[in-house]
Amino acid sequence: MARKEQLQAYWKENLRYIIILLSVWFGVSYLAGILLVDQLDAVRIGGFPLGFWFANQGSEVIFCLLIVVYVQLMNKLDRKYDVHED
Amino acid sequence: MSITLWTWIIVGITFAVYIGIAIYARAASTGDFYVAEKSVHPIANGMATGADWMSAASFISMAGLISFMGRDGSMYLMGWTGGYVLLAMLLAPYLRKYGKFTVPQFIGDRYYSQSARVISLLCAIFVSFTYVAGQMRGVGVVFSRFLNVPINTGVVIGMCIVFFYAVLGGMKGITYTQVAQYCVLICAYMVPAIFISVQLTGNPIPMLGFGGSISAGGAEILGDPAAQGKYLLDVLDGLHKDLGFAAYTDGVRPKIDVFFIVVALMVGTAGLPHVIIRFFTVPKIRDARSSAGWALFFIAILYTTAPAVAVFARTNFIKTVHNVEYAKAPSWVKNWEKTGLIKFEDKNGDGIMQYTKDKATNELDVDRDIMVLANPEIAKLPNWVIALVAAGGLAAALSTAAGLLLVISAAVSHDLMKGVIMPNLSEKAELMWARGGAAGAVVIAGLFGIYPPGFVAQVVAFAFGLAAASFFPAIIMGVFNKRANVYGAMTGMIVGIVFTAAYIIYFKFVNPSINNPQHWWFGISPEGIGTLGMILNFVCMYVISKFTKEPPQEIQELVESLRYPVERTTGETKAAGPSAAH
């Protein structure tokens, strides 16, 4: 039964990663890119108003990074719980 | 050399490459045909997914849309990329672990119900046809503008090419053709963007250039020496205000609507069958995760350039056309006037083109779709660049069309024939049905291109709304909630589809005259209503599953097994792990 509990712990950690990463996903797109965009526009980086930048490019760049982080975390987690392939 | 000659050469070479690859990688088995024997490298799969996903709409229309919508256009940028985060974390690895061929098959197995399988296969076919109709028309338009053939001839040429590699090569042929198509379309998109970015701002990276300031050369091109050294976005905001528009960097749509549309586009992306099916083709579960990352990376190259292209095109367009004498109009205006995509009506009779927000005084009617295609001409780039853009538009349209045709063919042969009607079908006969299905779908898609049904533009919202309101909750709950059962899933899907379809049909077809924010529920447009449909689907599924019989033991075990890449019992060594082989 110990193995079963281990697998459940693996799944729980997977869910925790997903929740944290999707919170960032929500933050950069729905908060920074839509709901708070006008407030953020008061800040400028070069020629970009910050909210406009998040809506146009920033969120996509961060989406890419989120998947990279997720893949790394999961590959490590797979090994930790001995459920990795090959 | 003339544009037409260059186009024939470049388009000819790219088509020869696609066909060559199709012959080289033709499918021999159903495994080859549906999922390329699960042998595709994650980077190649990422590129293929990028080409598959980026359609004529992304390539030709998106930057134009954004340039007319300003900041509100960002809903397409976020909506069409954010779905990949959901795919990577919530769908791809689990569906890959499941390891069969199609989405309807997963739904049918997970909810132990043939009816669930049939509902989802009908949705898959509907979504795919809605999409493919637009692609074939796009092919026709590109051909007719750049090769001077009638639109219908262009559609037929496109049909022959797709027929050849989709029917012959199946998923294997399509995947490697799509890798080549990705390379063509991304070059075609980036080359003019880089040229124009250098011209206007001196910065060779367009993603950064549009936030930069206008160079001396840029000021000269815009015919406004005072603009030199100012931020490009500030200049564009100023131009917009002068013409009566809202500032480019400000949004005008209600935020609630933008919010709902972005959710619908993201979830719809994650639920589109031709995207999901691509994650069945990689060798391992970890490859499915990383391949979603690669796909987004390759897509983001184009999607972070699109807002730059939009800003360049918008500024260039206003500066070189507004308040310019018609007789001295740039040559691209005259070229595109012939296609009817630019119209000039001299309302005040002064012979000068005035472009304003006010309909009564505006004299220029411009189709948004030409912004990307006309961009190289607007910036006076060499003819080969214009030809390259034509080849890129064709690559984008053809790759998406092929991916969709494959979903239709798999739905017909694997889910309908083999799965429901004739379970005893031999592999050889199934492959024949698959090829026949693909061939039939090509012909129907071509007919849609030649006789474009007027409703195509109206039903694109359908494709995303339906994918969001039907597949997505069924798959997510299928993996993340062991308790979800057939009753919940069926009710959820039906409620989601019927609600979403009814709302869209009402506002788009029954009563289009009241399709405006005053009459929408909570200010949500038909484009965003799929989000509400999805929420309803989730709620129905959860509540009904909770109060009805739980799924059989073996289904719960199936769900459990999806969650782990490999299940080893303690002490088992790697070499002895039989479950490592899929």
TrEMBL record, chain A:
Pfam families per the UniProt record, alphabetical: DUF4212
Residue ranges constituting the Sodium symporter small subunit domain according to the UniProt record: 8-84
Domain of life assignment: Bacteria
InterPro entries named among the record's database cross-references: Na_symporter_ssu
Keyword vocabulary terms for this entry: Membrane, Transmembrane, Transmembrane helix
Transmembrane segments: 15-36, 48-71
Descriptive protein name: RNA polymerase subunit sigma-32
UniProtKB/TrEMBL annotation, chain B:
Listed CDD domains: SLC5sbd_u4 (cd11480)
One Pfam assignment: SSF
Location within or outside the cell: Membrane
First-listed, main subcellular location of the protein, grouped into a coarse class: membrane
Transmembrane segments: 6-25, 75-95, 116-134, 146-167, 179-200, 258-280, 292-313, 384-412, 432-451, 457-480, 487-507, 519-544
Keyword Transmembrane helix: yes
Keyword line: Cell membrane, Membrane, Transmembrane, Transmembrane helix, Transport
PROSITE patterns the record matches: NA_SOLUT_SYMP_2, NA_SOLUT_SYMP_3
Membrane protein topology class: Multi-pass membrane protein
Family membership: Belongs to the sodium:solute symporter (SSF) (TC 2.A.21) family.
Entry-linked PANTHER family: NA(+):SOLUTE SYMPORTER (SSF FAMILY), SODIUM/PROLINE SYMPORTER-RELATED
Protein name: Sodium/solute symporter
Species annotation: Desulfuromonas versatilis
